[in-house]
């Protein structure tokens, strides 16, 4: 009989990819996806531990399932991902109706764990070793990369795909739980990355995004012993027929080297969009965060980008209200945001994570309302900058990869109405969101769109129609 799977995913691109791969694996076992928890035989929650709020939300979502499980005890409820690794058995204590807990380094075990539960063997838990629970080799082995064969139907769009190039992190920034829950940094074999990317391109993927915690620190040797860096991977990926766009997230400022930036400049398919989290504009705070660079280092990186990559866009992450952050230190962050003019910034209030060095070394002493105020202030400045820079694009023609119908954007009064037009959404090569009227046929294509209006985070445009011979008509 057909089995139904419900899956909910929060967190980063790594989690999106993990969910896709778990769904693909379970489909091979006869599962179909359902959007309704009530209809599902198995419910999986792919979780995030980066901030406490994400964990609390997961517990409250699980709380809603208590009665459901009472009425349907045969339903299987599973928690996967970072919080499964972080809280382990604690999840069984707080939510006793959970059947399965599986860390991000053990996802390949999910089918057999479900089978064991169905066979009456009771609750199942599979997690990897902690960072102090063995030798580096043992810990590394216990965090297995999960890269089964891809299933194009499982992705948000069939023409865009994430490709894992790295798991784990060894940077140990003092606020961050990731090195504990995702284990030691490991570069995936270049042969596997290229094989998977070719397979994706052959099945219609036009855009791949390489994912990892610090992809520009990527290092791996191939079977002949050659060392590969990110720039080498990009050069090979550029040659894959059918691929049109290559993006990579997320990056570490110190490793944004000249040769990598030259590869971004020289390889036409590689997006000049660079996400490089700064976290704070104060050297003192960066030191407490143990980020391993100074503001001067970050400025030097911005100078390299400006010098080498034409048409670049840089975005960033910030943590406000980190332990001991004074008003002066926060103002330095404001100054850097003004100076760097990021395309956009993700701003987070510091959330103390048990098990991190930050939690051991410092006191989380900035009151919540101060964190909130700094968050609002920084966001307002960033939004003003994003809007000003978007306004400069009005009148320009941008190349947009059309992702699908737009769900939320408002219909602009100036747009000519047409009975067949749908409001579509897509992204430029620099990752700017563009909304325009088009035809569903255009989904998955790269189209020239002229920008006529904008908000801070959205461009509004019109497809450039070429009123010429039929050979050009294919463009539309
Ligand atoms: N509290 C708040 N934000 C955090 N981040 C990572 N750890 C924490 C934390 N403990 C933010 C960083 C990182 C992004 C993914 O999440 O800005 O770049
Ligand atoms: Fe966390 Fe720092 Fe590693 Fe990023 S580089 S995942 S912030 S430890």
TrEMBL record:
The organism sits in which domain of life?
A: Bacteria
How and how many cofactors are bound, per the record note?
Answer: Binds 2 [4Fe-4S] clusters. One cluster is coordinated with 3 cysteines and an exchangeable S-adenosyl-L-methionine.
Catalyzed reactions? N(6)-dimethylallyladenosine(37) in tRNA + (sulfur carrier)-SH + AH2 + 2 S-adenosyl-L-methionine = 2-methylsulfanyl-N(6)-dimethylallyladenosine(37) in tRNA + (sulfur carrier)-H + 5'-deoxyadenosine + L-methionine + A + S-adenosyl-L-homocysteine + 2 H(+)
Q: Where in the cell is it found?
A: Cytoplasm
Sorted alphabetically, the keyword list is:
4Fe-4S, Cytoplasm, Iron, Iron-sulfur, Metal-binding, S-adenosyl-L-methionine, Transferase, tRNA processing
Taken from the record, one Pfam family name reads Radical_SAM
The protein's matches in PROSITE patterns, at most eight in alphabetical order, are given as: MTTASE_N (PS51449), MTTASE_RADICAL (PS01278), RADICAL_SAM (PS51918), TRAM (PS50926)
This entry's Enzyme Commission designation comes to: 2.8.4.3
**Which parts of the sequence bind [4Fe-4S] cluster 1?**
12, 48, 82
Residues at which [4Fe-4S] cluster 2 binds: 169, 173, 176
Which residues does the UniProt record annotate as the domain Radical SAM core? 155-388
Q: Which residues form the TRAM domain?
A: 391-465
Cofactor names from the entry are: [4Fe-4S] cluster
Q: What is its main location?
A: cytoplasm
Give the quaternary structure: Monomer.
Protein role? Catalyzes the methylthiolation of N6-(dimethylallyl)adenosine (i(6)A), leading to the formation of 2-methylthio-N6-(dimethylallyl)adenosine (ms(2)i(6)A) at position 37 in tRNAs that read codons beginning with uridine.
List, alphabetically, the HAMAP family matched. tRNA_metthiotr_MiaB
Describe the family membership recorded for this protein in Swiss-Prot or TrEMBL: Belongs to the methylthiotransferase family. MiaB subfamily.
Q: What is this protein called?
A: tRNA-2-methylthio-N(6)-dimethylallyladenosine synthase
Source organism of the structure: Blastopirellula marina
